[in-house]
Amino acid sequence: MKDKLTDANFPRTADNRVYHLGLRPGEIANKIITVGSPSRALTIAAHLDEEPKKFRIESERGFQTITGRYKGTPVSVISIGMGAPNMDFFVREARESITGDMVIIRLGSCGSLTHTSAPVGTVVVPKACVGITRNVDFDFGRPEDEQMNEERAYRISKPVSDDPQLHQIVVKSLENARPVGDQTVVAGHLVNASADSFYSSQGRLTSFPDHNTHLVEELLQQVDDLGTLEMETHHLYHLAKCWNHRPKISSSRSNNLNHTAPPLTTGPVRPVTLDSSPSRVNLGSPSASAPLVTVDSKIYVSAAQMVFAARTSVERDFITPERVQAIEEWGGKGVLEALIAYVIPAERLHPEKGSTQIVHQARSVVYLCSFWAIRFFVVCPRSRRHLLKALSVLRILRWKLAGFHSRSMNRCFPNKHFWMTE
Fold first, then answer.
1. Contacts 24+ apart (CB under 8 A), 178-181
2. What are the Nucleoside phosphorylase domain coordinates in residue numbering (predicted)?
3. Segments making up each domain of the chain, as ranges
């Protein structure tokens, strides 16, 4: 670690970047698609508008963020890797990097536990999720029948639901995005289970004494409408529920009775000036005056899961790479359509002033001014001296706008990669 951090409770760098995602306010949109695979993020980002140019950040922790617009609406695509811990990093740090409401849809993969209702290639939009955790208090070195009256090897949580309105929008958008003639099933009636490991808590048998031989059978018996199994979605649903049901604060502590308690963080670190030279363009501070979050904000979540494997079929068949590519293509577009269809009032969105989108729009204005200045020079060569000065200023502005984010981020994060695409 080479960056100076402040606040051990919620680490940030001097210019307000969160520890793992490497983001600061202004670089992430209120509407987000989260995926596990970086290549899937690129597939989805290819559907974003060509203008303004997309903004892309890759942190040294492996999180990749691409922010742009889809049909004019700001969206971010974030790849987070695998598992509930990475989902926790993403949701918490994204929440602390943006004001207003958030809409998050996970587009990922899963295994099917009911191959008749969710065969390989099905896209499942789980209406609810349960969590499966390995019980570390269980003695895995002893036979299970000796511990029947003591601890259970695995614990299954109560179900937690996604946002019902967003759920219906995701199902409809995926059905509309599915190519004509494509027989892929979009299932919105099933429940998902998220495990804390790929092997033991999902009932996969290895050389370890995991006591999970009958785990899948127990899951199907205990959880109604259970259809899929993976590692992330339950934690996404759980954190959204926690955020949306956090306790109210008393009126004596707030000017607004509808506000709820702010997060535990001690507050934003004020950004520092990386270059005090008078020639630096003032692009505005994306986080200097805005609070970390809007205290009465909401997080609306849902998910779309591609069934890669049939866990309970005799053949235990697996999806083909060609099928994955096809579903990611139209499924990514369908999820983007769902994001923009879910309406967030303008007053509950993060302000665009100082954001990466405004920077790109400013660059476009500078390019346009440069073009017309050159045209004017051709028509009126007698104004050469004044026009050359104007072009020099425009060239400096263009250079500073183009490199502002990448240079400032690389100074703060020399081991990370930040760039503007295209």
1. 178/330, 178/334, 179/330
2. 32-242
3. 5-348, 356-420
